[in-house]
Amino acid sequence: ITVNKLGEGSFGSVYKVISKDDKKFYAMKVSKEPFRNDWDRTWKLNEVDLHTLVSQHPNVATLHNAWEEDRHIYMQLELCKPIIEYGESVSERKCWEVLIDIVTALDCLHNLGMGHFDVKLENILCGYDGLYKLSDFGLVYHFEKDRNKFPKEGDAKYMAPELLRSTKEFTTKADIFSLGISILELAGNLSLPTNGDVWKALREDIFPLTHTERISDDLFYLLTKMMSSESSRRPSASEILRMPVVQAAIQRR
């Protein structure tokens, strides 16, 4: 039973629903376009398959069920909230919590040989259990199974610089950059551009002082590492979780 529409994206629409089976609330994601052909069907079902692999992780929005109907995909997901309420002033403590939870989700994803390639604030949700969760696995890329094709491009505002170079360097470090710039946006109250001088500067290790002066030295240092213009200089998700500054933030939680 549909309660109301929660949002709409390139993939389709998301609704708040009540299950007739258990009377609980869920989010229902419905693909916008019907399958165009067998390849398109395979690509869209790939999201279901890869999401299923990590669905039980506490920092991933749980996929409870999925099915095909009239050439559309329906995904019954854990109901979550946006990470920012309208008009909310975001504390640095919250920024650390979001960072830690999503790095933990990425560590799981990366260890399974996958990259998300669409990490952004819009795809980070807050569960009713109080944990932050990674969602929207439509662009997830499995480095072994998908090695003969390039990943689809995500949102330009969050995209790592190496994904735009002619060499097309696709690694899990792109997710680290995207999470770093997402936390910068959250902590610095920064409106990220899709192009232009500021967009370029953020991918050349240059940070706007007006938006970083309110960020603590510890968090700013970590974000500069995560957003390094060279992917090889960025820490992996597991390395981030082992950093003393991150361990200290985990202990404070």
From TrEMBL:
The answer to whether keyword Ribonucleoprotein applies is no
Q: Which family does it belong to?
A: Belongs to the protein kinase superfamily. Ser/Thr protein kinase family. GCN2 subfamily.
What the entry lists under Pfam families is as follows: Pkinase (PF00069)
State whether keyword Disulfide bond applies: no
Can you name the source organism? Cuerna arida
The protein here is known as non-specific serine/threonine protein kinase
Q: Where is the Protein kinase domain?
A: 1-246
Q: Which PROSITE patterns match?
A: PROTEIN_KINASE_ATP, PROTEIN_KINASE_DOM, PROTEIN_KINASE_ST
- Give the enzyme's EC designation: 2.7.11.1
Q: Which residues bind ATP?
A: K29
